Amino acid sequence: MPRRCRPYTTKEDWKRSVLDSKDWAGWPSFIKEHYDQIPYTKYPEDSRACFLTIFQGGFRAAEAIHVKRDMVKWNDQVIVISRSEVLKKKDRTLRNVLIKRDELNPLAEDFIKLVENVEGEYLIPKRLKFSRSLVPDKPCTSRTVYSRINEISGRFPHELRAYRAMMLVAERGFDVGQLMRWFEWSKADMAIHYTATRDLAASMGITELP
Questions:
Q1: I want to staple 29 with a disulfide (CB 3.0 to 4.6 A). Which of 25, 94, 140, 151 is the partner?
Q2: Has residue 209 been placed in a domain?
Q3: What's the order of all strands across the beta sheet hosting 93-100?
Q4: Domain harbouring 33, CATH code
């Protein structure tokens, strides 16, 4: 049974959830254990939007809800999410997210389909509480995002951000500096955490972790 969490969690809760996340086990396992667990509800596309936006962009929940359709552009090589705001920084920082389109990121195409089919201004739209009618010019709340992600696999939204970091290390070979630039982190502690196991394994000649 999926574990259930409160919609709002403490800083210690989500830090523990991230540090306790399993290592990146590869796309087949990730898709089966998480993405394929999106429940069939009246609006499964809303849960899918939460999942894909947070994971592909490596966003915090409060950042993901403000991503608009017109911020996302793509060509045959890359998806770019432009001028997304980075929270938890003293000065206002905007981030351009580069998402490569290739066989190492099979969910990139699902993300493009999401953007192409979104009905409103935001990728994760607001819906009225009882009628579930779309409010096209307003975003979903962070609280709702927490609930939708928790319904999928009993996880925190921040864990998807952690899996994105681990995917970039395992599939793209990102080092600490590249992770810091991609996520716009000002400190290296989390980047070091995500790369530590892989760096140690590589130094021992281990090419694949179980």
A1: 25
A2: no
A3: 72-74, 78-86, 93-100
A4: 1.10.443.10
Q: Is 5 domain-assigned?
A: no
**pLDDT 10s digits, 54-83:** 999 999 999 999 999 999 999 999 999 999
Tens digits of per-residue pLDDT, 83-97? 999 987 677 889 999
DSSP symbol at 36: G
Selection from 135, 155, 133, 130 nearest residue 54 by Cα? 155
CA pseudo-torsion sign 17, 23, 29, 35 = positive
Rounding to the nearest 10 degrees, give the CA dihedral for residues 20, 26, 32, 37.
50
Q: Which domain holds residue 83?
A: 11-203
Distance CA 91, CA 3 (A): 36
Q: Would you say residue 105 lies in a domain?
A: yes
Domains held by the chain: number: 1
Q: Which helix (H) or strand (E) holds 24?
A: none
User: Are residues 196 and 99 in contact, defined by beta-carbon separation less than 8 angstroms?
Assistant: no
DSSP per-residue string spanning 104-145: T-TTHHHHHHHHHH--SSBSSEEE-TTT--EEEEEEPPHHHH
Helical H segments across the chain, by residue range = 11-19, 27-33, 44-57, 61-64, 108-117, 142-153, 157-172, 176-183, 189-203
In a domain, 91, yes or no: yes
